[in-house]
Each structure stands twice: as structure tokens, then as C-alpha cells.
From TrEMBL:
This is DUF985 domain-containing protein. Pfam families: Cupin_5. Residues 7-139 form the DUF985 domain. InterPro entries: Cupin_DUF985 (IPR009327), RmlC-like_jellyroll (IPR014710), RmlC_Cupin_sf (IPR011051), YML079W-like (IPR039935). PANTHER family: DUF985 DOMAIN-CONTAINING PROTEIN (PTHR33387:SF3), RMLC-LIKE JELLY ROLL FOLD PROTEIN (PTHR33387). It comes from the Bacteria. Transmembrane segments: none annotated. It comes from Pseudonocardia dioxanivorans (strain ATCC 55486 / DSM 44775 / JCM 13855 / CB1190).
Length: 143
């Protein structure tokens, strides 16, 4: 199934970093952060069909692979812009050496994702404290 057709089927909207998404869960509890109250956690479905722009989030993000192509998930440090990328593979166990179905991105670390196959990849991203676009930053070259 094509990415646009799958996005429509799942009720996903375009994401600023690329791909499509829809929030599927917000924890009923809140937590205080230096930037204001946030849900204790949130989750989205995210459909990647190419490459996501370099970006970072102020919270820990857990990527969970569901289906489609494996994903190269790269981190680029926590400096003012992305540094030298370090890539891990998110996908079905056994797809390649070291592939795992979930990966953690620490708070404030630059990240990007790219497909490692022809099919779009469907993942969930769980963010804690919960995601707020006020805590999201695209890399200067990506904005």
C-alpha cells in the first residue's frame, strides 16, 4: 500500500519533519517541566516514507517499529546543530545485525530517520514527559 493511502486509512496528517502522524494516546496525569506542565507521556503513530528532517525534542522519545521497511535512526549529539551522525537500525529482529524493534532517543539529542527499504515504515513514538510542539526544534538547515 502506498504511503498516502496508508496515511488516509490511519487518519494521519502531514508532520513538519516529514511523513505523517496522529496522536493516539495522552496520559491522564501531568508533570511539571521547566517549560510548563506536560502530560506524563504521549504516543503517536508515525508513517515514514522517505527521510525525516533533523530535529530534537526536550523529552525522551521511544521509537517502536510496527511494519514496513527497517528504519535507519541516526542521532547527532546535543549541540547547537546536528553533529556527526551515529546510526542504529529500527525494525524486525534479524533484518540486519543489531536491528531492534525499539530505540530510545535521549532528551535534547538531534535525530533523523530514513527508510532502509522500498516500503513505508509504520512506527509509534512514545514521548515522556509528553510531546508539545513548544518542545520541538527543527535543525536550522531544515527549517
Amino acid at each position: 500500500m502506498s504511503a498516502p493511502a496508508l496515511a488516509t486509512l490511519l487518519g494521519l496528517a502531514p508532520h513538519p519533519e516529514g511523513g505523517w502522524y496522529r496522536r493516539t494516546w495522552t496520559a491522564p496525569t501531568t508533570t511539571s517541566t521547566p517549560h510548563g506542565p506536560r502530560p506524563s507521556a504521549t504516543a503517536i503513530l508515525y508513517l515514514l516514507d522517505d527521510v525525516s528532517a533533523w530535529h530534537r525534542v526536550r523529552s525522551t522519545e521511544l521509537w517502536c517499529w510496527h511494519s514496513g521497511s527497517p528504519v535507519g535512526l541516526a542521532t547527532g549529539g546535543d549541540g547547537p546543530g546536528p553533529g556527526a551522525p551515529v546510526e542504529t537500525v529500527l525494525g524486525p529482529p534479524g533484518a540486519a545485525a543489531g536491528t531492534l524493534p525499539q530505540r530510545e532517543i535521549p532528551p535534547g539529542v538531534w535525530q533523523t530517520a530514513r527508510l532502509l527499504g522500498a516500503e513505508p515504515a509504520l512506527v509509534s513514538c512514545v514521548v515522556s514527559p509528553g510531546f508539545d510542539f513548544a518542545d520541538f526544534e527543527l535543525a536550522p538547515s531544515a527549517s
